[in-house]
Structure to design on (324 residues):
């Protein structure tokens, strides 16, 4: 496993991270398998684990807290997020000072830690001034409850405004972004990567395999694999990605992966890691075998010719509008 700095900051994170948004596995065979997966991650050099307070109503945090507590605190980096509703009350969601502090304390308890390494605003809250949110996060760094903080799915304008507020008020700096990024969704290349590089922010993208599309399990003119996410996912995110155009791209990418002697998922992860702005890719794995495959992407360098061929297949066109 290779490690990268979190942007310009001193924290080192494994190039491949393990995320969790599991349902409540407590006391089940699935919990034992998930624990084996986490321990396999440790054995293979993964030191970065990601979750959120809202994942399964806190079950994801409690699972990580139970498993990670068996390891020394200096051996892992844990991140979690805040924003989504955690109760029926008017203040049980969002990025107000009240909600952030209450949920941060709950997350610390769930994760069984004294501090959280990376804390993210999961979404933008239009009902709370950015000044209030950034001041609260800065205060939590000052209090030692979090070490580094950032935002997830925020627009370039929102990120820029937050950075301006931080500078004007001399707050503790923002350190990291967690947007979605994969071969099928490259929007962060247009502006966000530039913002991150200019301000020394690390980028730790989620959904690097496009909900499983880039594993190669979904093939054109073939039935959905039994038990796959596309057969049970309630919000149908993966189903919406199974377009003829995307499946055509998968068919063209598979031979490149075969030439390199790796799986399509490893190719897709290495393709993301080609960018110096990326600190780590947050992967999902429901069993050790998937984790062991994903970590093969660390240190895999793609040649300029391979990157060129991939770009021709993806045929990405950034949006530009000339003014005047």
């Amino acid at each position: 496993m290779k490690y990268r700095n979190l942007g310009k900051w001193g924290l080192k994170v494994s190039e491949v991270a393990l995320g969790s948004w599991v349902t409540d596995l407590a006391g089940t065979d699935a919990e034992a398998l998930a624990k084996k997966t986490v321990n396999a991650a440790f054995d293979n050099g993964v030191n970065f684990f990601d979750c959120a307070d809202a994942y399964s109503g806190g079950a994801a945090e409690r699972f990580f807290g139970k498993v990670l507590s068996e390891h020394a605190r200096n051996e892992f980096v844990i991140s979690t997020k805040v924003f989504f509703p955690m109760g029926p009350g008017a203040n049980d969601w969002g990025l107000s000072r009240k909600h952030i502090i209450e949920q941060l304390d709950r997350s610390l308890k769930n994760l069984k830690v004294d501090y959280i390494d990376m804390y993210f605003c999961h979404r933008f809250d239009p009902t709370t001034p950015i000044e209030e949110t950034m001041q609260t996060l800065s205060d939590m760094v000052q209090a030692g409850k979090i070490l580094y903080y950032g935002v997830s799915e925020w627009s370039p304008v929102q990120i820029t405004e937050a950075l301006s507020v931080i500078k004007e008020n001399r707050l503790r700096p923002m350190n990291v972004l967690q947007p979605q990024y994969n071969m099928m969704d490259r929007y962060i290349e247009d502006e966000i990567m530039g913002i991150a590089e200019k301000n020394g922010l690390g980028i730790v993208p989620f959904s690097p395999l496009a909900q499983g599309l880039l594993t190669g399990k979904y093939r054109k003119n073939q039935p959905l694999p039994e038990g796959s996410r596309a057969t049970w996912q309630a919000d149908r995110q993966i189903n919406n990605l199974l377009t003829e155009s995307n499946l055509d791209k998968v068919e063209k990418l598979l031979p490149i992966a075969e030439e390199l002697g790796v799986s399509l998922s490893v190719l897709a992860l290495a393709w993301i890691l080609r960018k110096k702005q990326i600190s780590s890719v947050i992967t999902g794995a429901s069993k050790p075998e998937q984790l062991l495959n994903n970590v093969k992407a660390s240190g895999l360098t793609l040649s300029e010719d391979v990157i060129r061929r991939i770009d021709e297949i993806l045929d990405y066109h950034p949006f530009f509008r000339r003014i005047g």
User: Anything to note?
Assistant: DSSP finds eleven helices and ten strands in the chain. The chain has a mean pLDDT of 92. The longest strand covers residues 116-123. The chain has one domain: 3-211+263-300.
